[in-house]
Design brief:
heterodimer, A: about 250 residues, mainly alpha, MetI-like fold, 10 helices, B: alpha/beta, Rossmann fold, 6-stranded mixed sheet, 3-stranded antiparallel sheet, 7 helices
């Protein structure tokens, strides 16, 4: 609760400074609309259903991209652990892709996949994939040899050792990767929805910019931030409730 | 005789850098009933011997036969509990749906009331007791113990030694117990074998040694064992 109050206090201070600056008329209302104007736009967009519609669409895209990225990261993490040979071929490709910003691929993605959902989801997947892949790989490979020896002493097969020791031992690392990736997925959203979209919060922001509605731009930005925080809070809360070990204070 | 290890001509060497270090060099040994203690200085091959018996490693030459039926339980120097599992889940670890009288093991090891505790919520001694219960969960005929109490403080170690003796009496399993402590060997052992230079150098049936199962062991016997170990040191 204290943490929430501190956050709320910071928000009040920011809005207060913003309000004072707009009252001083240092910039035009187009460059910096008043908090009141942004608030009334937010209420209007919410009541009309426009904002909820964009939120639901963006949330769906983030969820799909995040889920696909997790599946891919998990599968490749297992490959890296069990098949070091093929992983040797895969590693340079992944290293290359890790260093290429997904937004740089947008022209090619449009060319290859058109302007539908696929290209947008791919951008989110590419952004969310790497933090999860690195964490999952680390989690699997950094398993304590002492714990693995317990499995050896019980004559576990490789599969049983993976399921009963490596995987549960890697859960804290996997969750950290998922948490970082979730944030990255939301950050990639605007980029993904720049691909000739007609819906979603990224589209909302770009459309508002074209219409010179900076109040709507701010509503879009704030909504992305708030939904992102909400997602992270829900995720952290679920993790803290279900995990009784390997979770430190940084999850609160 | 019930379950036990029968070892003949066991050799094992390791490559360290560009050197080949021979750890076990033609070891012959037949385990008898009760608690057999393998005593020796650090690095003399005690742990290697246990790992080979537990099939966690493969010997270069020689044979290991496990006499009798039943499984083998292993207790390591550290408890090595799965941090994400509760006491009961750790005891049942690896058993799947296999039958296990968990309640009885909890009572035998004095862990009743801590069934749902995670390892980090238990004291060092309790963690070792969970590890001991895990090794006994499968009702093994033979339990291998690799310096299981070495990391514990004196009082807890003595309590664990008593617990081991009580468990051995209750369960009737044979134990191969590795330690570098002469006092511990005399307290828990029915038989002490001294390992030096990769071979059994001395073999004592200690059932009738004065001071066996006593916290004040016979000094003459202690001196004899020490000289056997030190005479061959360093190994």
């Amino acid at each position: 609760m204290r943490r929430f109050l501190r956050g709320a206090l910071v928000a009040v201070v920011v809005v207060g400074v913003w309000w004072v600056l707009t009252e001083l008329h240092l910039w035009s209302a187009y460059v910096l609309p008043t908090p009141g104007r942004v608030w009334s736009s937010a209420v209007e967009m919410t009541m009309s259903g426009e904002l909820p519609r964009h939120v639901v669409i963006s949330f769906g895209r983030v969820l799909i991209g995040f889920a696909l990225a997790f599946g891919l990261a998990f599968a490749l993490g297992v490959v890296a652990l069990l098949l070091p040979g093929p992983d040797g071929y895969l590693a340079p490709v992944l290293s290359f892709l890790k260093n290429v910003p997904p937004l740089a691929l947008i022209p090619l993605l449009i060319l290859w996949f058109g302007i539908g959902e696929t290209a947008k989801v791919i951008v989110i997947v590419l952004t969310a994939f790497f933090p999860m892949y690195m964490s999952i790989k680390k989690g699997f490979q950094a398993c304590s040899p002492q714990l693995l020896e317990v499995g050896t002493s019980l004559h576990f097969s490789t599969a049983k050792q993976f399921v009963l020791i490596r995987l549960p031992n890697a859960v804290p690392d996997i969750l950290v990767g998922m948490r970082i990736s979730l944030g990255f997925a939301w950050r990639a959203l605007v980029g993904a929805e720049m691909i000739a979209a007609s819906s979603g919060l990224g589209y909302l922001i770009l459309d508002a910019q074209r219409m010179s509605r900076s109040d709507k731009v701010i509503v879009g930005i704030v909504t992305i931030g708030l939904v992102g925080i909400l997602c992270e809070r829900l995720f952290s809360g679920a993790v803290r409730r279900t995990m009784r070990w390997g979770i430190d204070d940084s999850w609160s | 005789m019930t379950a036990g290890a029968e070892i003949a001509g066991l050799c094992k060497s390791f490559t360290v850098g560009d050197r080949v270090v021979s750890v076990l060099d033609g070891l012959d040994f037949t385990q008898r009933d009760g608690i057999t203690v393998v005593l020796g200085a650090s690095g003399c091959g005690k742990t290697t011997l246990l790992r080979l018996i537990a099939r966690m490693d493969v010997q270069d030459t020689g044979s290991i036969r496990i006499r009798g039926t039943g499984s083998i339980g292993m207790v390591f120097q550290e408890p090595r509990l799965m941090p994400w599992l509760t006491t009961v889940q750790n005891i049942r670890f690896g058993l799947g749906r296999g039958a296990c009288d968990t309640q009885r093991l909890l009572e035998l090891t004095g862990l009743t009331g801590f069934e749902k505790a995670l390892p980090h919520q238990l004291s060092g001694g309790m963690q070792h007791r969970v590890a001991l219960a895990r090794a006994l969960a499968n009702r093994p005929a033979l339990v291998l113990m690799d310096e299981p109490f070495a990391a514990l403080d004196q009082l807890t170690r003595e309590r664990m030694q008593d617990q081991l003796l009580a468990l051995q009496r209750a369960e009737g399993m044979n134990v191969l117990f590795v330690t570098h402590s002469i006092d511990e060997a005399l307290y828990v052992g029915d038989r002490i074998v001294v390992l030096t230079h990769g071979r059994i150098d001395a073999d004592h049936d200690v059932a009738h040694v004065p001071g066996q199962r006593s916290r004040a062991p016979d000094l003459e016997f202690t001196r004899l064992i020490r000289s056997t170990i030190q005479g061959e040191a360093p190994c």
